[in-house]
Each structure stands twice: as C-alpha cells, then as structure tokens.
Design goal:
By secondary structure, this protein is an alpha/beta fold. Helices cover about 40% and strands about 15% of the residues.
C-alpha cells in the first residue's frame, strides 16, 4: 500500500477505486489566467459538472496530467478540493516544449524543480503534486542544435523526472507520440536511471496501430496507458482502441494497462477560431465507463480484468514508485 497525494489530502492506494489515468480539469497555457484567456468561474462550473457526471459512472479518482506550462490552475484545485466527489491527483513536470529557462539546467536541477512541487507544495499552497508528467511528441524528432536541440532537452528532462521519482517516491506518466514508438527510448532512459519501470506509464499508446509495440512496453514492465478515447471518434475507431485493451488482457497484462480519455472539462487549447474555450461537454470522461468497459464485458472479459485496469494498474504504479524512494 502507498500514500497518494490528492488536491484534498492524502489517501491510501487501496482507496483509489476506478481511476481515469490521464485527464485534464483545466488546460491551456502557462499564464493564461493573467492575459484574459481564462475564466475561472466558468472553468469551475464545467469541472463540477464533469466530475459529478463521472462520479455517477463509478469513477472515484482522476489523474490530472496538467503541469504549469499546460495551464495548470492551482487556484481551481484549491476551490475544487472541498467540493469534488472524486479524488484528483495533480501533476508536476512539463509539457511538450521545454521552456528556455530549463536549457542550462542539468538533470538534477530539473529533478529539484519537480521535487519542490511534490514535497513542498505547488505555488506556495498546501496542494502537493502526486505524479510527474512529461511529454514527447513531434518535438522529439528535432535534433537541430546539438545539446540545445529539443530532443536533447527532452531526454535531459526525462532523466530529471526519473531522479525526482526515485527521490520523492511518485510515479511518472508520459504523453507520447505512439506512431514514433518513443516509449521504447523513454524506457531505455528510465532503465539507465535505474528506476522501476512499473512506476512508469507510457501514455496515449492506443494511438498506435502496432500491437507488437504495445506489447513490448508491457513486456518490459511498464504500465501501458490506453488513454486516448473520446466521443468525437467514430465507432469503428472506438472499437479498434478497445481491441488493444482486449489484446493486453488476453496477453496477461491487465494489471499493467490503464484507461483514460486525455479530455478536459475546460480547455482553451484548440478552441474556436474566435478564441475562448472549447465547447462544453460534461460527459467528457464517460466514453471509458460508457462504451469501452461495456464493450469489453460483451467480449467475455471478466470483472476482475476490468478492475485490474481501472484500479490495480494504478495502485501498482504508485506502490512501485513509493517502494523505490531513496
């Protein structure tokens, strides 16, 4: 059993219940609250509605994968901490574009920055990050600039995340561009940093159409995040993604598979051309409990396997991380 920090306090890993492994309450850009791109009253209303809808669908915990440069709003966390019916785990870390401020840092300095939000609290509050989020997407292919290339900087920050994970005992979750199979290189780096891969989630893996890549991540001991599953996908695509979960279950990796949507209750990213947040959708966290799980059950998957993905895989990542704390 491990202790997990949420925005409302600490819970035991045995109490997480059904968990969505990669979501966002509020997302956008760092500083958006200071330049007129963020309406907290509206954001809180949307978050409250979406959290209550998800709770009615048996969701008990949501991992919010929003670091500061993706628009994390600690003020919203503070207000939701007393009203949310769901446990919310906040993240430290960074998003796809490494800030220039980090460029001269070494991995230990990166680690210290992440540790501060885990151990001391976020932005001077008593809300502590409970997970480290990093993101490798198309930027990882950029090698121009040697040590200053985006690829080099992203690899350095991955090492910083690994060191912070070992020192603070919290897991790492990774946004990845699955088509580029970058999860393999991430696991190589984490192994070089001598962390338990059971504490690592390679996310957005159900974007991949290559089942051998998906299974390779699981064989190496990592948690496989099947956390891109949204309402705007057609049924054929929803079924294709559900089949990846089925393949992992059939291969014996249910306890290394977690489910989610990568959806936000309030986001200014990819909003309307006129500006402002995306269209409201209080059901944004329903496709997994409303479609994917019923589909898996209809294919003969047992409730034990559903609970392994929705509960045990999450417990495993937090418990593995806490066990290696130095």
């Amino acid at each position: 059993m491990a202790k997990i920090r949420t925005i409302s306090g600490t819970i035991d890993s045995q109490d997480v219940g059904w968990t969505l492994s990669h979501e966002h309450l509020v997302s956008g850009m760092g500083g958006m609250d200071r330049i007129g791109l963020y309406n907290e009253e509206e954001a809180l209303r949307r978050c409250d509605d979406a959290l209550n809808v998800a709770h009615k669908a048996q969701i008990q915990t949501i991992i919010d994968c929003t670091p500061v440069d993706l628009g994390r709003q600690v003020s919203a966390f503070k207000k939701l901490s007393s009203s949310s019916p769901i446990n919310i785990v906040a993240a430290t870390g960074l998003y796809r574009w490494v800030p220039l401020s980090y460029y001269s840092w070494d991995p230990d300095t990166v680690a210290q920055f992440f540790q501060r939000e885990i151990e001391d609290g976020i932005e001077g509050t008593n809300i502590h990050a409970g997970i480290i989020k990093i993101a490798w997407d198309i930027e990882y292919s950029s090698t121009v600039g040697g040590a200053n290339s985006l690829q080099s900087q992203l690899e350095k920050c991955a090492r910083g995340a690994a060191r912070a994970s070992k020192r603070s005992g919290v897991p790492i979750t990774c946004h990845t561009r699955a088509v580029d199979r970058v999860g393999i290189r991430l696991l190589d780096i984490f192994e070089e940093e001598e962390i338990d891969l059971a504490a690592v989630t390679i996310g957005h893996t159900n974007d991949s159409t290559e089942i051998d890549y998906v299974l390779e991540l699981a064989r190496r001991g990592a948690n496989v995040g099947l956390d891109r599953f949204t309402k705007n996908m057609n049924e054929e695509e929803l079924i294709r993604r559900s089949e990846i979960a089925l393949a992992l279950i059939e291969a014996g990796y249910a306890e290394q598979t977690s489910l989610g949507h990568d959806s936000a209750a309030y986001s200014v990213n990819r909003g309307p051309a006129s500006g402002g947040p995306r269209i409201e959708d209080a059901d944004c966290w329903l496709p997994v409990p409303g479609f994917e799980i019923p589909w898996l059950l209809s294919k003969g998957v047992g409730q034990d396997s559903i609970d392994a993905m929705m509960v045990k895989s999450i417990q495993r990542t937090f418990e593995s991380a806490q066990a290696m704390k130095s």
